[in-house]
Amino acid sequence: SIFKLNIHVQERLESQAYKNIEQFASDVRLTFDNAMKFNVEGSLIYKFASALKKTFEKQYKNLLRYLFCAR
User: Fold this and answer.
1) H helices of the chain, where?
2) pLDDT tens, per residue, the chain with 71 residues
3) Angle at Cα 1 formed by Cα 59 and Cα 25, nearest 5°?
4) What is the pTM of this model?
5) CA–CA gap between residue 12 and residue 6 (Å, rounded)
6) For residues 64 and 71, what is the distance between their CA atoms, to the nearest angstrom?
7) Max CA separation in the chain (angstroms)
């Protein structure tokens, strides 16, 4: 379920299981994608997932830009 995946991401973060930032980003994207896949388009959950995914992608892009420019 979507909630289990969120717990999965949290547990992986806490245990430092991600080997790189892209693994983390992939799991976060999967969370949003599943929320949209398993909820009716136009529903509140679908809309929230879509908006959060767009925000995540924008912030992720900014983070990558910052990390690679800082080197």
Assistant:
1) 2-14, 21-37, 44-69
2) 555 668 889 899 999 999 999 999 999 999 999 999 999 999 999 999 999 999 999 999 999 999 889 76
3) 25
4) 0.85
5) 10
6) 11
7) 43
